[in-house]
Predict the structure.
Amino acid sequence: MAVTVGASRLGLGMLRRLPAEARPLIRPGTVPTGVVHLGLGAFHRAHQAVFTEAAVGAAGGDWGIVGVAPRSTAVVEALAAQDNLFSVSTLSAAGSTTRVVGALSGVRHAPRDPDAVVALLADPAVRVVTLTVTEKAYQLDPVTGQLCPDAALAADLAGGAPPRTVPGLLLRGLAARAAADAGPVALVSCDNLPANGRRLRGMLDQAVGRAGGVPAGLVEWVAGNVTCPGTMVDRIVPASTPETIEAARRALGVTDLAVVAAEPYAQWVIEDDFPGGRPGWEHAGAVLTDDAGPWERLKLRTLNGVHSAIAYLGALAGRETIAEALEIPHLRDVLRRLIAEDVAASFTPPDGVRVVDYGEQALARFGNPAIHHRTLQVAIDGSQKLPQRVLHTIADLRAAGRSARWGALVVASWLRFALGYADDGRPLPFQDPLAGPIRAALDEGAQSPAGAVDAVFALREVIPVEVAEDEEVRADVIGWLTALERHGVEATLAGAR
């Protein structure tokens, strides 16, 4: 990211120069570490860090966060140069506000010093470990939930060399924690995965069971001392740009190279299962519950599923941002039918929540013109996202004997997007961990939409068997894909019934 950095850089020495309303709620260095976070990306900084700072500001506690970057050094270097301070710019049609956040007590780069990260995970002062590492880092088959180690994780499971993967870091850290009798800990997935707590638990148990060179009794220690509460997280956080940095500089009077932008809305639902204690997140507006499942399904199917639909259809129609895509004629009407006829009928929402109302709120959020969330950014990793966002909706509808016509449109738009070109012929990037098999399947079935659908539906790592073998779903997807290829997005939506 090329930006010009002025003489004044955000840091502890600059806090008195900030506008009063922009100063952090807690001062870095004054709150001891109690949380380690794996995945020091923009979403964590705009979501869990904000909730935790507000919780500590309201209820106290030793809950400073050490943020660990599993890959990139850029954010670690930027934060270290700024005394772990960063700002969040909240964007709406009415304008923006920028405030500095002081939740971070430290930062680490895992590849550079994995032993330091392992030591943190074994520290008895650390009682909560949160994660935003994306679906890929769990190395789980999205359909079966089985651990599928790559070469790096296989090496981590074998032991010996310092860990290089997220499962490897957790495995080594928990082994050290058990050996030191450091007390219980909660591992909290904040990734958009169905039943993310159970997914994390499954990954952890499989890794512990397959690992070599770990202390005797580790399986039993993990079973008795480690919890994995499920969560639902929600806030739209577009990628930062040089314009994001410049806007924050104007608001703060100093340069912040770790600034993130976000929409006003934020939600966090957390299963309250923390054997070593936790921050008072409820004082920051989080919902503490016994079961996050209904909230997860509400968000994954209604918000994330619709988000994916807008991204694929918008990218095909040549729209750069989600807000611009929503202006495609007839798209809002189609999305409302997707929400009301497919999503709302596929599951039981949390008490007191109407799926259609939640969907309307989601459409309003997506239409925020100040959030420049690129369609291509939302469209990446479809093979990892579609099962929980769309395919599970289809499977549940069909199990209940209902049509899944609008969900089939989303699947068809993803397949059309995977072909790699927009309606006007411009190339589209297809970024996906299964890009090779998907492209090979599309090439195999290139003679017709039916051939393409059959070839991709044979990929069990993407399409659940109950969906792949459903003739009504297959026919609906073929019909929509045929229309999208022949007529393009706008004409297809205009004729949708």
In short: The chain has a mean pLDDT of 95. DSSP finds 21 helices and twelve strands in the chain. The two ends are 45 Å apart (CA to CA).
